[in-house]
Amino acid sequence: MSGKYLLALLTSLLLLPNWESRSAAQEDEPHIRVVVNMVQLNVAVTDKSGRYITALRPEDFLITEDGIPEKIATFAEGDEPARSLLELAPPEPSSGQGAGPESDETAASSSLARPPANSSRTLASAVAGAKVFVLFDTSNYMYRGFVFAQDAIADFVRSLESADQIAFYSYSRDLFRASPLTSDRAQVQRAVRSTVVGDDAALYNALLLTVKDAAQYSGRKVVVVFSNGPDNSSVVPPEDVAELAQSTGISVYMISTHQARLEPVSTAVFERMTAATGGQAYFSKSWKDEKRAFESVRDDLAHLYSLSYYPAPNRNGGWRAIAVRLAGERLKHYRVRTRNGYRPEPSRLSEPKPAARTSIPRSPAEVDEIRDR
């Protein structure tokens, strides 16, 4: 009997180092934390004459991201509430995926393309009504047509009956949050009428901060900018603003007077930024044109299709190209307008953050501070 006990003891001692090495190896294995973000698209469909095409169905849309087909998670047309097209139970992960660790910094490149456990809450937040941020140029460029622009914006606010909430900001060299996001139309109207003319224009600084504010909210988000002329004070390049708007799913609409049209650089920037985010640019020659431009923005918001999806397996942590097209021969002649891509944000940037400060940065160091917040 003593010999059997001795043999068992020796065997245990021989196996102990292997057990310890396996435990150490398990501790050294990276812990994979998967965060899947829903991608939301505002999609306009028109014919060759610019008339809106209505009554399309989810199966009429084909979405690809970096050429990978995507499955639509929610769908809505115009002002109707969005409906979920996915079962709340997460599907099984795709076979052959998931090799290698993933970090929180590239969370959206997850190898598990499925709704998270709290899918019902995520879907509910994605179907919320539109949140519209109006950004008004009150720089010294606006002196002559200031009152007419106020009237056009006031009429636009009154016409947004379907929007859940509206925010009104103004800018010259600094950004002024005259009315934070609210459903109180009277408060927004008072904010519009209280604006006064300022000094130089820092459009892209102000637009960057406005996009950052809008990005904190779920659901459909739109920024409508009224600008009278070029930017002569910003330290933020417009390319950075456009990329942030694309990556956070915010459509930017630019309404400007003929003053901006006279400067080719501003014209090109306005057109590129709005096209990249799924919005549109308008150049008004008179106050009547300004009113018509705001009416066009309102009509566009009322006819947008809202589509969302959870990205399929894709390890690309950089820029991802989005393509939306229509299925079938009968729809191939229609035109589709939406944002053309996005850059997956680190998970730390997708969490709610305090609103950016009102003061517009005056130096590159201050701009870097805003970008890192």
Summarize the entry for a quick read.
With 373 residues, the protein is of the alpha/beta class. The chain has 2 domains: 39-78 and 83-87 and 96-120 and 305-342, no CATH class; 131-303, von Willebrand factor, type A domain (Rossmann fold). It contains 11 helices and 15 strands.
What is the fold's blueprint, element by element?
Elements: H1 2-28, E1 39-46, E2 61-65, E3 68-70, E4 72-77, E5 83-84, H2 119-126, E6 131-137, H3 146-159, E7 165-171, E8 175-182, H4 185-193, H5 203-215, E9 221-227, H6 238-247, E10 250-257, H7 258-261, H8 264-277, E11 281-284, H9 287-303, E12 305-309, E13 320-326, E14 335-337, E15 341-342, H10 347-350, H11 364-372
Helix pairs in contact: 3-4, 3-9, 5-6, 6-8
Describe what you observe in this structure.
This protein is an alpha/beta fold and 373 residues long. The protein has two domains: 39-78 and 83-87 and 96-120 and 305-342, no CATH class; 131-303, von Willebrand factor, type A domain (Rossmann fold, 3-Layer(aba) Sandwich). Helices cover 35% and strands 22% of the residues. A six-stranded mixed beta sheet has the order 8-7-6-9-10-11, sandwiched between helices. Strands 5-4-12-1-14 form a five-stranded antiparallel beta sheet, with helices on one face.
